[in-house]
Amino acid sequence: MPTEATTSPRLYESAEMPAVLPNFCSVGAVFTVVLCAELLAFVFALAMPAREGGQWATLGLLSLFVQWVTLSCMALLCLLRPRLQRLGEAGAAIGAWGLIMSVTLLFSALAPYVDGVADRSLLGDLPGGEFMLRSLSIAGILASIVLRYFYVQAQNRRRLQAESQARLAALQARIRPHFMFNALNTIASLARSQPEVAEEMVEDLAELLRASLGDTARLMTLDEELDLARRYLSMETLRMGERLRYRFACTGLPRDLRVPALIVQPLVENAVYHGIEPLPAGGEVAVEGMCQGGVVTLTVSNPKRITPPRHGRRGHHMALDNIRERLRLHYGPSARLEVVDAGDAFQVSLIFPLHATEQARAAA
């Protein structure tokens, strides 16, 4: 039976739920926060009376103070985020809010001394105490709004994950009976004539069931996912004989890459069920993969009937929609699922980015 995988135990990893606090260490998050802070300083500069040097001097002083506070908060939140996350949702939000207020208090207290050294007036005509009170009030209100926004975003992501997992569970319950029926019939027919082959098929079936009955939110390595697809195709080859041929060309991929479970095997099953089975002569299912520029592309292609049957088989688009949504939930908007229907051929491509640590591992 053609397979490259060893018989080592499968270790699946659960996907983390969306965190209330985002990753403040990422370049995108730093750029976004710095840009928003500068826009905030610009609005304050327009609302304040011009000082010596004109409106641009006012904007420069405000930008200096706001970016001091912003970058210091970002650096501390980046370092302390793992500890804050262990406090739970409410604890993480309160801790982040308190950290922002503490940094603002520190720099507000230092502002009069900076004015004296730089011979510039950041405070203007305001006493030091009033400047501190205003800064703390603005920081407290903005921090509350931003943290509330992060909380709502995390809740929305969790709701989308729950809906996606429910749809995946419904899809698995829908396609499992026909596959189980065919697999058990094939095992029964091979039990006496080819007991060794039947035993291997039972092992493959057990592995597929272990994966499909597990937690739909878990992660698994790309090597494990491709191995499941090979096992499925190997079982279907025993049933369909020469009508089904398959080919894997995924040698350039990082095999220990963590991906959402069951994103390739359902595509292979669709290729057989909707593409190969209706063709009298059968055909070939090709699974190809490449990694280029920090982006992974996995493609499953198969021949198909030019004219679909009158009563088409259902579940095809449900599987594609589910995988598309799970990719976006895990990798963000840069991940996508592309479908090419060329009439007599059908091709589905999964395109998603490598994370920074995975890029370094792949380059090594």
Structural summary, described in words:
The protein has a 5-stranded mixed beta sheet, covered by helices on one side. It has a 3-stranded antiparallel beta sheet with strand order 1-2-4. It contains 9 helices and 8 strands. The chain is of the alpha+beta class and 364 residues long. Strand 7 and strand 8 form a beta hairpin. The N terminus is likely disordered. It is 61% helix and 13% strand. The radius of gyration is 28 Å and the shape is elongated.
Key traits:
disordered N terminus; three-stranded antiparallel beta sheet; 9 helices; 364 residues; alpha+beta; single chain; five-stranded mixed beta sheet
Instruction: Please state the structural category.
Output: alpha+beta
How widely separated are the two ends? 33 Å
Rg (C-alpha, Å): 28 Å
In DSSP terms, counting alpha (H) and pi (I) runs of 4 or more, how many helices?
9
Average pLDDT works out at 77
- Largest sheet descriptor: 5 strands, mixed
| Percentage of residues in DSSP E strands | 5-15%
Architecture blueprint of SSEs:
Elements: E1 13-14, H1 27-47, H2 55-85, H3 88-118, H4 128-193, H5 195-212, E2 218-221, H6 222-240, E3 244-249, E4 258-260, H7 265-276, E5 283-292, E6 295-303, H8 316-331, E7 336-341, E8 345-353, H9 356-363
Parallel strand pairs: 3-5
Antiparallel strand pairs: 1-2, 2-4, 5-6, 6-8, 7-8
